Amino acid sequence: MKEKTASILVVDDEERIRKLLKMYLEREQYRIDEAEDGSIALQMALEKDYDLILLDLMLPGMDGETVCEKLRESKATPVIMLTAKGEEANRVQGFEVGTDDYIVKPFSPREVVLRVKALLRRSSKTKFLETETTTKNVIVFPHLTIDHDAHRVKVDQHEVSLTPKEYELLYYLAQNPDKVFSREQLLKDVWNYEFFGDLRTVDTHVKRLREKLNKVSEEAAEMIVTVWGVGYKIEADSAT
Amino acid sequence: MKEKTASILVVDDEERIRKLLKMYLEREQYRIDEAEDGSIALQMALEKDYDLILLDLMLPGMDGETVCEKLRESKATPVIMLTAKGEEANRVQGFEVGTDDYIVKPFSPREVVLRVKALLRRSSKTKFLETETTTKNVIVFPHLTIDHDAHRVKVDQHEVSLTPKEYELLYYLAQNPDKVFSREQLLKDVWNYEFFGDLRTVDTHVKRLREKLNKVSEEAAEMIVTVWGVGYKIEADSAT
DNA sequence: GTATTTTTTAAAGAAATTGTTTAAAATAAG
DNA sequence: CTTATTTTAAACAATTTCTTTAAAAAATAC
């Protein structure tokens, strides 16, 4: 099948959020349109066949729920809703308006990209049933295995329990083996967009991560490599 | 070689119900057609050989019973009837017009998927391969056994009596050992589609579940594992 | 219709995670 | 070899998440 880059409509009244999402999604080769007003967004979504819509709940013009509802009258475009934390975030979000997924603000860019990819994969899968390959999200290294669906990390068959941030960090590095990330970049991608903390925070997490891995296997711990003056990376071939 | 997936016709006048069913069934690799009108549904069912039909009782055009009756004149397609709560649900009349099973609204998505699988398995022994999650009738863990047919849970040979929700929750988790579910997802799948309550509801049920299991065996209780920042899972190998 | 059980909500207390700070160790460079 | 810089380590404070408890609401049985 011919690969076509998906086009995505990003709807949020805050420009910095739109730009942030746009930047990260364009990096993944998606084509991005923006809207800051609900009713305009609806118009756009009706005119053009987007592959996915990222939709803020609270919007001028028309709120996200209503946009979604009205859109559903004629289209089945997948929708990911963005909700601010207080905004009944700890309730089950209704699929009654036809939302496919939702993300709570402030999110980490990484999270959004993952969810977008997952939803696009799901929705294209239903379109072409032949693609029945059960996409298992498992990353395997010589001593380390990360099963993302089960949210489980194993070092030499031993399960290692990681905190959320530790897991996120490891998973992010593992997704791009051998690629070095600066502390700034890791903070930007893995942490949420409202966090502007100390760069040493990354060090601390790396330290704790190594510690936990090292309890099982020294080789596994040594996979997380320090690149002096630059940052950190995961080394795929830790031929120690 | 391509594997054949079952095709299902979903008939309901409410769009959100159709979409809901479609979403959950497509997730199980079934192919879904929709109809909102009774007589149109009948036409479709006669033209195409569906493997199963999910049929709402109350329908515009022609009610579910009549659809089923007329269909039976020429076809034996398995039918699951959907009935609203008050809607003469207690009358097992449904079976007289050739219904194979019936589900009372509001149902939990999980329930429908289980019933559909069960009926498909019954109606065609070898025609279809089991989809992703194999529905077993007895699930056995080191200290815990769940006999779904008997609706009975045993911890180290001792029967533990659970409330309906407690049982549903445990059974759902047990069907996907080691897989982590968010509270959100548990509420969506295990609770009925009209429930939009608090995420903490899950915590309370987990707590009581652990409590009951713990009365018999500490190991059994510890099988229900909290994954911080993510959700809950059942651990198959509780080799603590 | 009342009583009982089950489910849900709410709120306080406990536990775990995260971020900051400080000091020590390691590395690179002169 | 010495110094400056960077990274690691460890301890503490702040925050977040989870558990527990109790009480209200809903469903079910009597």
TrEMBL record, chains A, B:
Domain OmpR/PhoB-type residues, every copy: 136-236
Alphabetical keyword list: Activator, Coiled coil, Cytoplasm, DNA-binding, Phosphoprotein, Transcription, Transcription regulation, Two-component regulatory system
Origin: domain of life: Bacteria
Subcellular location: Cytoplasm
SMART domains for the chain: REC, Trans_reg_C
Molecular function in Gene Ontology: DNA binding
DNA-binding region: 136-236
Principal cellular location given in the protein's record: cytoplasm
InterPro entries: CheY-like_superfamily (IPR011006), OmpR/PhoB-type_DNA-bd (IPR001867), Sig_transdc_resp-reg_receiver (IPR001789), WalR-like (IPR039420), WH-like_DNA-bd_sf (IPR036388)
Residue ranges that the Swiss-Prot or TrEMBL entry lists as coiled coil: 199-226
SUPFAM superfamilies (UniProt xref): CheY-like
Residue span, Response regulatory domain: 7-120
4-aspartylphosphate PTM positions: D56
Protein name per Swiss-Prot or TrEMBL: DNA-binding response regulator
Organism: Sporolactobacillus terrae
Source organism phylogeny: Bacteria, Bacillati, Bacillota, Bacilli, Bacillales
